[in-house]
Amino acid sequence: xxxxxxxxxxxxxxxxxxxxxxxxxxxxxxxxxxxxxxxxxxxxxxxxxxxxxxxxxxxxxxxxxxxxxxxxxxxxxxxxxxxxxxxxxxxxxxxxxxxxxxxxxxxxxxxxxxxxxxxxxxxxxxxxxxxxxxxxxxxxxxxxxxxxxxxxxxxxxxxxxxxxxxxxxxxxxxxxxxxxxxxxxxxxxxxxxxxxxxxxxxxxxxxxxxxxxxxxxxxxxxxxxxxxxxxxxxxxxxxxxxxxxxxxxxxxxxxxxxxxxxxxxxxxxxxxxxxxxxxxxxxxxxxxxxxxxxxxxxxxxxxxxxxxxxxxxxxxxxxxxxxxxxxxxxxx
Length: 332
What we know:
The chain is of the alpha/beta class. It has one domain: Spore Coat Polysaccharide Biosynthesis Protein SpsA, Chain A (Alpha-Beta Complex), CATH 3.90.550.10. Helix content is 40%, strand content 17%. It is built from twelve helices and nine strands. Strands 5-8-6-7-4-1-2-3-9 form a nine-stranded mixed sheet, sandwiched between helices. Strand 2 (45-52), helix 2 (58-66) and strand 3 (71-76) form a beta-alpha-beta unit. Helix 8 (217-234) crosses helix 11 (270-295). The longest helix has 26 residues, at 270-295. The chain is globular, with a radius of gyration of 19 Å.
């Protein structure tokens, strides 16, 4: 993963569209929206929330917030993150589009950092933020499994920015007019589509999130394993001979180990080093269990694949063609 910076920068006042898909996020979306409007960003912000198939009053929370801040609410009964992604990309009015989960908070200057990086001389198509788990109130095992230092080498759906024109060109080059609706891991699919040279991570763009608790991690890991299987079986043409170890990561196994060694070197106490060791072996065990469970599964129908993935989509998109007519758009 390259960390080079070009001399040319996108003007810091370029207009952005902030797109937030939300399925039953009434509890946290207000805090997330507050973190967006707390950004000291100099350009115009268009904020769009797509409530897809919510049953917990997410739309009401957004409408109440929109009385104080300019937020556009879209409502649809058609669930599924790929459907939400396609709809939001179409609805956005600006070329630079930021996708963010509804249950995160943006750290200070996160948007500035993303825009500056996508405007660099090498002009990546997409730039991802680093995820920082909020574990202060979590139990010990959850803290061990979610170290405070961000540790990933791929685009994570919690926060990333895309150049819409360049992204649509990439989609068209591979014969797509949008994200396929059966994609299990949407941000991983974008990384696979673009390949390792067209996207990067901006370390100074930070997004905070509440991590999965230790007993939820097996379910989360099964989703990753299913997504990897889907990439190899259904989207192998996008992998272009990429090594199995880096399906959607922008780093090699050696680079990943280098990051781990750096974490070990900078650990300040014996407790931190013990946590690093426990983290490594616990994740190996969880990964092994997930792979064995998924290997015993038959290929799932689309609706079951979404339900078992444990992702925010809740379930697969409706197959009824009339469902699209149930969509409505509320300008708030």
